[in-house]
Here is the input.
Amino acid sequence: MSRKFSWILLSAFLGFPMFAAYTQTAKPVDAEGRQWWQHAVFYEIYPRSFKDSNKDGVGDLNGIASKLDYLKDLGVDAIWITPCFPSPQVDFGYDVSDYENVDPMYGTLADFDNLAREARKRNIHIILDFVVNHTSDQHKWFLDSKSSRTSEHRDWYIWRDGKGPGQPPNNWTSTFGGSAWKFDPTTNQYYYHYFYPEQPDLNWRNPAVKDAMFDVTRWWYKRGVSGFRLDAVDTLFEDPNLTDNPIRLGVNAYGDAKQVEKYNKKLPEVHEALRGLRKVADEYNAVLIGETWTENIDELNLYYGHGNNELQLPMDFLFTTVNDLSPAKFRKEIAAIDSAAGWPTFVISNHDIVRSYDRYGDGEHNDQIAKLMAGLYLTLRGTPIIYYGEEIGMKTMPPTRKEDVKDPIGRKGWPREKGRDGQRTPMQWDGSENAGFSEATPWLPVPPTAKIHNVAAEAKDPDSVFAFYKQVLKLRHTNKALMDGTYAALNGNDQNVLSYLRVFKDQVVLVALNMSGAQQKVSFDLSKHGFLSAKSLVATGNSSANGKVVTLDPYGVFIGQLSK
Ligand code: NOJ
Here is the structure.
């Protein structure tokens, strides 16, 4: 028996996580040289809102475990769980007080190990959310840091004297409102926090911080995690001279003067830290996804690193900034990302932004439009990340009264900024009172649309958003052109229909997406590509092809295989 195999058997017998072996042996480069994460479909889970197993109105790890079969059946290969570590929950987990444990609200480490084991049985990878920029103010590192100017962890955070009595060290503002500096009377200095005051920024210039953070990733890789989504990487470093940021015209939702975040964001040192995290990730064949808010593709390219030595999957949020159904705008954005230095990543929703269902929906054809958007980002060259509930057409439901708001930025910025509760409501499993999410009152209310948009109802309806997601995901797991093919835009001047080919050797798939509310007939010059007609693989409603002419329903989707 090989040593590795006997270790796996022994660890399974002892009930310990032996998953490091899983990640290390899983170096699957296919014939095209692809890594597992290039063919995988990712799915973001906001654990508070996915499934509650212990009846406290908040989702948990055992809840997620109970839905693995659902995820597998949907066509999910990897789940990214937003922070589930111990936390005072000021920013719902993005304020971590211990990186190497699970918050009791979500379960225990044993529950995590069980989830990892069950996920592995189904070939589902687990990605955790690593909050690299800051900890909670309750983390033991910060408690020690603030205790005295000479404490062991003092330099793990960013402490400075004020400019004068009551005057912070410079003009930087927190993205969550107010000064980014908080005065601490224990040592008469200010500490820096880009987010809430309860989220002090770590000092990544201190090598001890880097090492400690790298070790955190090792700790989880050894427990079976296949990678991390790195939170807020843009904000890891600040100008050590604390130069004031230039001021822009206008004020934000919190009443602060707007500024150009020139000296506290996207500093070049970020890349050195990312290279370090990547080096560790490579030891475990893990993947790093980045929360990378970039202005253009040149900036995005920086996050792939030279020779791809930083993030494998920096998220392209530029795609989410196209907020209308404009073929021209999408064409431009897709061409840009398709020319990027690394493998593209697509998201259309997440826990911080209004759901795609509402951003693109016109209030009347939202289900068709939800399918249209799925037909788009699930057929592009790259890795898609689905946001939980998107597959059933979940709606954003922002609070209507300030007193109901849970997200502190909504309480602070009301009414201009209503916070992010609306996109974090409980997953809608069925049509019962709490949508099958919990037997107790959920931490956020369930939108009334849950009566119609829920897994149980949509599973029975072949025409549902859910049924369409399943069809497209099934196709993208089996069709070589969709998995590995190149992207080629078609009919570049069409104002209504976005269309393209995905080409893999002699296998070619045509995708045509009607972004208008009227029926469209489109003719494609297929002979130029050596083909005569298209045969439907997946289509919505009556959308179909006749030779080289595709007829599309309003907001219709046609995905077809070309034949000679
Ligand atoms: C980005 C996360 O997505 C967001 O939810 C969080 O509030 C901030 N980073 C701070 O960690």
